[in-house]
Amino acid sequence: DTTTTADDASDPCVNDLSLSGSESADASIEPGTFWADAGPHPDNTVDYDRTLELALAQALADTEAHHGEPLDAMGRRIEFWIVGMGKLGARELNVSSDIDLIYVYEDEGEGRLTAAGGEPPGARAVSFHEYFSFVAKRLYALVGDVTDEGFVFRVDLALRPNGNSGPPVVSLAMLEEYFLVQGREWERFAW
Q1: Cα separation of 85 and 187, whole Å?
Q2: Per-residue burial over 41-69, b = 16 or more CB atoms within 10 Å of its CB, e = otherwise
Q3: 156: Cα separation from own chain's centroid
Q4: 171-190, pLDDT tens digit by residue?
Q5: Closest Cα partner for 171 from 127, 139, 126, 113?
Q6: Nearby residues of 124 by Cβ (< 8 Å), 6 or more positions away
Q7: Per-residue pLDDT tens for 128-178?
Q8: Please, which residues bridge with residue 84 across strands?
Q9: CA-to-CA distance for 47 and 55, rounded, in angstroms?
Q10: With helix as H, strand as E and coil as C, how does the chain read?
């Protein structure tokens, strides 16, 4: 499985989508060359991973700008991860593949929705589940929505706990409970 975290957004290689000399499978590819310009990469999931990292960074930034940071009672940031399953997780993507994703956040609890300039009048406590649901919606809008230009990925969230009837995001505790109480053997095996 592949996992992307919000911390990946601070990685300079992620932000500019460029190759470093050590990443190049072909010594003739110069640093700073974009994958699209360099031809197909032997592991095309690198492109998918990087695209998801950039989209996650943007979705988190957009949500944070509107609602504030997801902080626990001790002021520690709550993490959010994208888990790639299926062909993405196995690194067997092809041009017609959809990407199977599961969105997981670190901890239950709640924070405050605050605007960038401070807490607006009438701000209310919001669960981390609700906060990261906003992130997931924004992420889908960035990579899954069909626009006039097309779409980035066909995103499938059906492998999440409880399938399409389950919530789009789950906490680590929710995920663990699901596997212990309801998870089928093939689901446990996939993880």
Answers
A1: 11
A2: beebbebbbbbbbbbbbbbbebbbeebbe
A3: 13
A4: 999 999 998 898 888 877 77
A5: 127
A6: 112, 113
A7: 999 999 999 999 999 999 888 888 888 988 888 888 888 999 999 999 999
A8: 2, 101
A9: 12
A10: CEEEEHHHHHCHHHHHCECCCCCCCCCCCCCCCEHHHHCCCCCCHHHHHHHHHHHHHHHHHHHHHHHCCCECCCCCECCEEEEEEHHHHHCCCCCCCCEEEEEEECCCCEEECCECCECCCCCCEEEHHHHHHHHHHHHHHHHCCCECCECCCCEECCCCCCHHHCCCEEEHHHHHHHHHHCCCHHHHHHC
Give the integer Cα–Cα distance in Å for 112 and 70.
8
- Tracing tokens 């999931």 back to the chain, one arrives at 45
